[in-house]
Amino acid sequence: MNFKKTLLIAVVGICFLGLNSCGENTATQQLPELKITPKDILTFDQIASEVEFIPMIIPKESPLKLLPFDPILFISDKIYFSTGDYNDASVHVFDLDGKYQRSFNRQGGGPGEYRELSALEVWGNDLVVWDGFGTFYQYSLEDFSFVKTFKVSERKYIPDYQKLDDNKWILVFDIEDLDHEGYYPVFHLYDSITKTVQPLPIKAPALTSDLTEGMIAKLGEELYLLNFGASDTLYRFQDGKVLPWVKLNLDNNNLPENDKQQPEETIENLLMQQRYNFNIGAILAAGNTVRIPVFGLKKVQDFDPDNVGSFPIYDVYVNYPNPEVKVSRAFGNFGGKGFSKDGYFYEWLYAEYFMAYLESGFFGKFTADLENAMEKLVDQEDPILVKYKVRF
């Protein structure tokens, strides 16, 4: 379940926030501390550079049904996009200038068909669909004909994954069995040769899965950062080992340990009152810039539980390995994973957000660029892709 959907549920009292590790208090005391305060919050145009708004040019004779669900992106020599809608998980292909080329859909229950679409990749000459249930479906980029499947797990749900080499993977598992203290391992190593799964030594409580269950960001050939909902620590995976990298201090107002264990009826008040700050659990890296979203830091006056765009969500950008920080109000689609490539972050903007960003002046000196992109749209209901770097 993604953060957007979960947080909306949480506001009405169903969500419960989790602790990232049963031994965190003692294990991370000597870690470098990354202190983040409201004074660190800057406007988008103060942190961003090389900003580009790419209009998605969809011809009138080929309209697409793009319901504003969480976007799934992959960019290589083309832009591959899907809403991941369980009713219509089509994949739409655009060139790098945003011009629509074609679509395909192999959703179904038959041979060579995926039930759902949770991620997209390109492997060599194949477009690859990850179904979120342990199987990759490979299709030829030339004509989208089915090539083969590759299964890495029989789990009922795998929110995220990262390929380490031809044989090994990191898999994120949703909640299943808890240990005697009420925790479960989030990240697991999978070996496709031995067919074995080994948990990594990071544990979360039962309802961490109501936020971001876990996410993996690749920084280099053999370096990965790990994060998940309500964690006060960011971890790194390197040379087969997990080590804590940095401890998050969110204005000395992190969600207290006892509140992380409280009944769900307390969470509604926690969120509505914006009483505490917490790490949502997503993570993305563009070059050496790491981005994580946090809830809180600074209260917003226009908080509306029916409008996730009004939530006090901030993107924290951290320079790796030296933890220099910049913070800006989050934008785009908060439940989506986003995408990064060659040092750039990419965010998908649906038309329903355009006017709000224009009226608020969110993009500052880049506002005229957004307006120019909007003028190029064939249909004003079509989306725009934002491409940007963060200055350090």
Stretches where pLDDT is under 50 for at least 5 consecutive residues are 4-28
Main beta-sheet annotation: 6 strands, mixed
Helicity, as a percent range: 10-25%
> How many domain regions?
1
Spatial extent as radius of gyration: 20 Å
Q: Quote the average pLDDT.
A: 86
Q: How far is the first residue's CA from the last residue's CA?
A: 33 Å
CATH superfamily: TolB, C-terminal domain
The count of helical stretches stands at 7
In total, the number of strands is 29
Category from helices, strands and their pairing: mainly beta
CATH architecture level-2 label: 6 Propeller
Highest-level CATH class: Mainly Beta
Tell me the β content. 35-45%
CATH topology, what is it called? Answer: Neuraminidase
Shape: globular
Q: Please, could you describe this protein's structure?
A:
The structure is a single chain. The chain is mainly beta and 392 residues long. The chain has a single domain, classed as TolB, C-terminal domain (Neuraminidase, 6 Propeller), CATH 2.120.10.30. Helix content is 12%, strand content 37%. The protein is built from seven helices and 29 strands. Strands 2, 22, 23, 24, 25 and 26 form a six-stranded mixed β-sheet that branches. Strands 1-21-20-19-18 form a five-stranded mixed β-sheet, with no helix packed on it. It has a four-stranded antiparallel β-sheet with strand order 3-29-28-27. A hairpin with a 2-residue loop joins strand 20 and strand 21.
